[in-house]
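Fold this sequence, please.
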Amino acid sequence: MSSHEISEAEEKLPEARGAESAVRPVDDPFADPGLPPHEHRKQDIDERAAKRSERTVALLFTVSMVATIAFIAAYVAIPVDRYIYVFPIGHISALNFALGVTLGIALFTIGAGAVHWARTLMSDEEIADERHPIEASPEVKSKVLEEFHTGAKESGFGRRKLARNTLFGALALVPLSGIVLLRDLGPLPGTKLRHTKWARGKRLMNYNTMQPLRPEDISVGSLTFAMPEGMSEDQHDFQTEIAKAALMLVRLQPENIKDKRELDWSHEGIVAFSKICTHVGCPINLYEQQTHHVLCPCHQSTFDLSDGGRVIFGPAGHALPQLRIRANDQGYLEAMGDFPEPVGPAYWERG
């Protein structure tokens, strides 16, 4: 380094710059520097700019509502086994992709709308306040309440109705995404619980021999189990359907039948009732000949088969449904329709 360059460098030192450039000590190094002057935003002084910001916020909230509706529509419409190719991820589930995208947009636009509202429409003026004791005095509480009302007023929440209402709409729709997911708790039953395999003209098949039943096959005092014609144990839905269609047959003396409809729906004293208990759905298989009562072995609900299958003991809530039967031209017992009401336990959709 030359002597000229050294002299220039020395001139830049604090001692060489003179008293005006020297670092001067201060009395209080921790003094409050204060706040810089507040700078107004464009939205603070131009109402048209504020309206544009409000419309932007409303647009973001509206997009959130549309995305939530799209989430629900995708959940209902897209099959679970459908796959699509998305570059560069590859083949993925179309349902998962649609649900992720729509729910992400719904949540993101709510957040983006709230942030944009706060940054452009709410007051951004900084206020300095002294620290106060943890226990608030009445004066402080009054001041906080006053500041809250002032903040609420300055936020434009009451005045910016378009942004406020679309925010309410977006927040109201987003939870529907979670409610719709409750559908996966199980398949919707529809009307399946109201109908069985019994139909007009279906013969009564002996559950043990798989042969069609004739009136002479059923003697007085005996209990016989039957199922609809056309069912077999090798069918994939056999257990589901037999749980609703299982039937028990008892032959009574016609004069012992107390209920008129039961007598009309019987054939030569043969009455057909659902085998499924109306308490929790257990199969009934205990019969008392002298009293014509049947007993559920699970919780001892007892039904009178001579009086419309009504409950005479136990926790069952209603009588056993009766199936109307007759003998066809070939002499076989057949159904004259389905049960008039759902079999088994009651459920909340039951009308």
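The first helix runs from residue 3 to 11. Residues 16-23 have pLDDT under 50 and may be disordered.
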